[in-house]
């Protein structure tokens, strides 16, 4: 089994996440798609660590997990506050700022 | 498993040059203390204590920076510490000093309670807008003092970002600077719906962009086998490795960086967030984030990708053109003064990108861009300070029609704002002119003359919308129900004066700052 397949899988997951951010309307789902992108990156980091024969990539994956966790805290706080105000988490409803 | 054991035996504690990184340690340490104070102090004491702590921190960090920068034992080419993660060289020190002084001005604006009774931040962010409790808290004088630790954390992240010597450190610093800013955007006392909306937009787009940055890091790690900037440069210098990984990684990385710097086609968040965020936070973002993002871009392009510049220069060339055109043309159509300055910042980001891609061997591109950043930061902080003064019963009066005839109501405020707009337009005798001059001459030296011509046209178009505001303030009659100009307290006055004086002084005697910016290049 060559590691290249994992890179392709990671690219696929990253693309699914990116498309999801662009097409989904619920802020929570958009945010989950961003998390999917971060985890796709983790997969390629670990695969590259295997290909390069060094542990750096695996250590980086831990850093990414910690950052993703911190991002969840901040992101859910912000989405919660706007949900309580508007009774909706749809990104289409937030349309006061334009032009 | 064997690999793991073999590597574990090699690990030894890296050497840490505490003197060199003292400014960052002071800022981040004080941010932690500030969080503790938030938990331990009674509510009525927090504002005063937090403000004193923040200002002392900034002064202390600047002192540590000056001590280190002038010390005898500092190697001239800079030093890489923390196992090569942080590079403290001349550009790092220059950008740190710029960030610290700009943050000083921003903290003063953030802390001000004279213009808006109780400060521009909400007393309790958890209360739902529009409810009875929310109307009650609008009259309360307290504010969420968490803004001080958040500002310090963001500043610590920015300082790490401009000095980070590998891409992983850069990613962590990017998040440390961004996450507090997302929160700060959503804490306005007035117009809370706009503020919360700005926070959501900034957060979702920011997280999206940092995912791109991170994928770029992963691909470059796959390419070079290391995320150190110097290893990437070494790997790119004549190997038979796959160029796909290198350029795909470079592209994704740069998208993340350009997003933070609000450049060109990646600017979509800028006007909304600048308009919706509380004005002092907008000032902090516009000045300090710009410095940090372009500091990072300069370091990445110079240290890691200088060898391959002929492959990527055309792309960033195009991005710079798009950014200047978008900023100048869309700025013309704006009716809100904060949005107008936001589009002006997009145009300025294009000018800064010209300086960043002018990689001439003697480093004038880097020093010119850093000078421009410093000049632009001070002008912007003062401009947003003025914006916060023009108010009506509903809070800030940011619609341009409300600014008509402002010179008749308050000649001083209108005069200072005129001066700052002229500096943004790049009229001689202001720092904006010198900044544009040095950046454009570096670009011509690097053979980017067509780009400079486009930039000059874009500056001329942008000058139109600055001058339109000046004409509006001086030659229109004030509306009968127009806004009043608040008399600022000491904090806002100091911040505006600092910005305006630096803008003037650098317009008249720029040499000493230019010399200082040109003292050295990036450690590679």
Automatic annotation (TrEMBL), chain A:
Q: Which organism is it from?
A: Lentzea aerocolonigenes (Lechevalieria aerocolonigenes)
**What sections of the protein cross the membrane?**
6-23, 28-49, 61-83
- What's this protein's name? NADH-quinone oxidoreductase subunit K
InterPro entries per the UniProt record, alphabetical: NADH_UbQ_OxRdtase_chain4L/K, NUOK/Mnh_C1-like
Where in or outside the cell it occurs: the entry states: Cell membrane; Membrane
- Asked if Translocase is a keyword of the record, the answer is yes
Transport: present as a keyword of the record? yes
Under Pfam families, the record lists: Oxidored_q2
Give the EC number. Answer: 7.1.1.-
Its predominant location is membrane
Kindly state one GO CC term assigned in the UniProt record.
NADH dehydrogenase complex
**Membrane topology type, per the record?**
Multi-pass membrane protein
Oligomeric state and partners?
Answer: NDH-1 is composed of 14 different subunits. Subunits NuoA, H, J, K, L, M, N constitute the membrane sector of the complex.
Q: Which UniProt keywords apply?
A: Cell membrane, Membrane, NAD, Oxidoreductase, Quinone, Translocase, Transmembrane, Transmembrane helix, Transport, Ubiquinone
Signal peptide start-end:
none
Q: Which gene encodes it?
A: nuoK
**Can you name one GO molecular function term for this protein?**
NADH dehydrogenase (quinone) (non-electrogenic) activity
The similarity annotation says: Belongs to the complex I subunit 4L family.
Q: Among the record's GO biological process terms, what is one?
A: ATP synthesis coupled electron transport
Q: Which reaction does it catalyse?
A: a quinone + NADH + 5 H(+)(in) = a quinol + NAD(+) + 4 H(+)(out)
Summarize the protein's role.
Answer: NDH-1 shuttles electrons from NADH, via FMN and iron-sulfur (Fe-S) centers, to quinones in the respiratory chain. The immediate electron acceptor for the enzyme in this species is believed to be a menaquinone. Couples the redox reaction to proton translocation (for every two electrons transferred, four hydrogen ions are translocated across the cytoplasmic membrane), and thus conserves the redox energy in a proton gradient.
């Amino acid at each position: 089994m060559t590691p290249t397949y994992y890179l392709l899988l990671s690219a696929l997951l990253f693309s699914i996440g990116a498309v999801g951010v662009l097409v989904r309307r619920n802020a929570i789902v958009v945010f989950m798609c961003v998390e999917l992108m971060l985890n796709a990156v983790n997969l390629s980091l670990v695969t590259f660590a295997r290909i390069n024969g060094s542990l750096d990539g695996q250590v980086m994956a831990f850093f990414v997990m910690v950052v993703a966790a911190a991002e969840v805290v901040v992101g859910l706080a912000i989405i919660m506050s706007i949900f309580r105000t508007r009774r909706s988490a749809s990104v289409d409803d937030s349309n006061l700022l334009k032009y | 498993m064997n690999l793991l054991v073999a590597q574990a035996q090699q690990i030894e504690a890296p050497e840490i040059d505490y003197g060199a990184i003292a400014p960052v340690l002071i800022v981040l340490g004080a941010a932690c203390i500030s969080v503790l104070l938030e938990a331990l102090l009674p509510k009525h004491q927090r504002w005063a204590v937090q403000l004193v702590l923040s200002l002392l921190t900034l002064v202390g960090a600047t002192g540590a920076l000056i001590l280190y920068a002038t010390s005898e034992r500092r190697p001239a080419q800079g030093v890489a510490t923390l196992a090569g993660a942080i590079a403290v060289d001349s550009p790092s020190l220059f950008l740190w000093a710029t960030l610290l002084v700009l943050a000083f001005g921003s903290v003063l604006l953030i802390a001000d309670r004279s213009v808006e009774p109780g400060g521009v931040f909400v007393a309790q962010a958890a209360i739902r807008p529009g409810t009875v409790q929310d109307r009650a808290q609008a009259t309360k004088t307290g504010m969420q003092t968490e803004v001080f630790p958040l500002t310090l954390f963001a500043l610590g992240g920015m300082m790490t970002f401009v000095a980070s010597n590998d891409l992983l450190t850069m990613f962590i610093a990017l998040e440390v600077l961004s996450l507090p800013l997302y929160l700060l955007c959503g804490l306005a006392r007035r117009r809370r719906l706009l503020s919360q909306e700005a926070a959501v937009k900034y957060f979702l787009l920011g997280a999206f962009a940092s995912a791109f940055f991170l994928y770029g890091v992963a691909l470059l790690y796959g390419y070079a086998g290391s995320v150190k900037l110097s290893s990437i440069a070494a790997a790119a210098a004549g190997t038979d490795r796959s160029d796909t990984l290198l350029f795909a990684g470079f592209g994704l990385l740069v998208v993340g960086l350009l997003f933070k710097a609000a450049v060109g086609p990646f600017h979509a968040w800028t006007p909304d967030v600048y308009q919706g965020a509380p004005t002092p936070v907008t000032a902090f973002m516009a000045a300090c984030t710009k410095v940090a993002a372009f500091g990072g871009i300069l370091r990445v392009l110079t240290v890691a990708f200088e060898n391959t510049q002929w492959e990527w220069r055309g792309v960033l060339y195009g991005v710079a053109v798009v950014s200047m055109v978008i900023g100048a043309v869309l700025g013309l159509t704006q009716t809100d003064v904060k949005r107008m300055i936001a589009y002006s910042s997009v145009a300025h980001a294009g000018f800064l990108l010209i300086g960043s891609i002018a990689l001439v061997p003697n480093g004038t591109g880097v020093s010119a861009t850093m000078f421009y950043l410093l000049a632009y930061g001070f002008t912007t902080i003062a401009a947003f300070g003025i914006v916060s003064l023009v108010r009506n019963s509903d809070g800030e009066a940011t619609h341009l029609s409300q600014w008509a005839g402002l010179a008749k109501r308050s000649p001083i405020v209108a005069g200072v704002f005129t001066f700052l707009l002229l500096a943004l337009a790049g009229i001689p005798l202001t720092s904006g002119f010198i900044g544009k001059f040095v950046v454009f001459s570096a670009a011509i030296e690097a053979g980017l003359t067509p780009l400079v011509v486009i930039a000059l046209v874009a500056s001329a178009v942008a000058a139109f919308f600055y001058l339109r505001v000046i004409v509006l303030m001086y030659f229109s009659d004030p509306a009968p129900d127009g806004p009043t100009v608040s008399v600022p307290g000491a904090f806002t006055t100091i911040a505006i004066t600092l910005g305006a004086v630096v803008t003037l002084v650098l317009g008249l005697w720029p040499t000493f700052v230019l010399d200082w910016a040109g003292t050295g290049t990036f450690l590679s």
